[in-house]
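User: Design a sequence. Structure:
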């Protein structure tokens, strides 16, 4: 996929994602049972951390660096301390454990602040993508990696949200 296509698709899918969140309404965001025991708010926290993780990895690529996945518990702990989120690519950390970590971390953050943080993570990811060359994007198989962390992720959780809240919130 060409970079311009990826960026356009990402913007379109992002608009759809934001529409789904608006469909829920802030009053219902904390209601559980949307995706397992998670609420739409928990899903937003989960997506925030995944987007920030990928934004930071893309920024490293811009700088000509790469960070291999953590290979020991000590490396995982150091990574968490340094970045403030788990190494989602480490085989030592089960995906569900990393996902729950994100939900727990942001559970008591005020909703408006959570939204600001998530928008910032998305913007950082988008800006990092724009700064990468077409070659960097293709060399590293980033188009699919970005798709999985963003719009495919949005679609998956949007379906959960729509199933849980089949009628829009009346205002």
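Assistant: Done.
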């Amino acid at each position: 996929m060409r970079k311009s296509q990826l960026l356009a698709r990402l913007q379109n899918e992002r608009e759809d994602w934001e529409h789904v969140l608006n469909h829920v309404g802030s009053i219902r965001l904390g209601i559980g049972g949307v995706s397992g025991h998670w609420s739409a708010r928990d899903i937003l926290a989960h997506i925030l951390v995944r987007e920030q993780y990928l934004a930071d990895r893309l920024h490293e690529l811009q700088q000509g660096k790469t960070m291999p996945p953590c290979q020991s518990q000590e490396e995982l702990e150091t990574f968490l301390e340094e970045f403030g989120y788990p190494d989602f690519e480490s085989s030592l950390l089960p995906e569900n454990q990393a996902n729950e970590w994100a939900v727990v971390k942001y559970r008591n953050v005020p909703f408006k602040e959570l939204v600001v943080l998530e928008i910032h993570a998305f913007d950082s990811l988008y800006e990092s993508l724009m700064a990468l060359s077409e070659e960097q994007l293709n060399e590293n198989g980033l188009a699919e990696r970005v798709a999985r962390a963003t719009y495919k992720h949005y679609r998956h959780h949007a379906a959960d949200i729509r199933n849980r809240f089949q009628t829009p919130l009346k205002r």
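The two ends are 40 Å apart (CA to CA). The CA atoms of residues 52 and 120 lie 9 Å apart.
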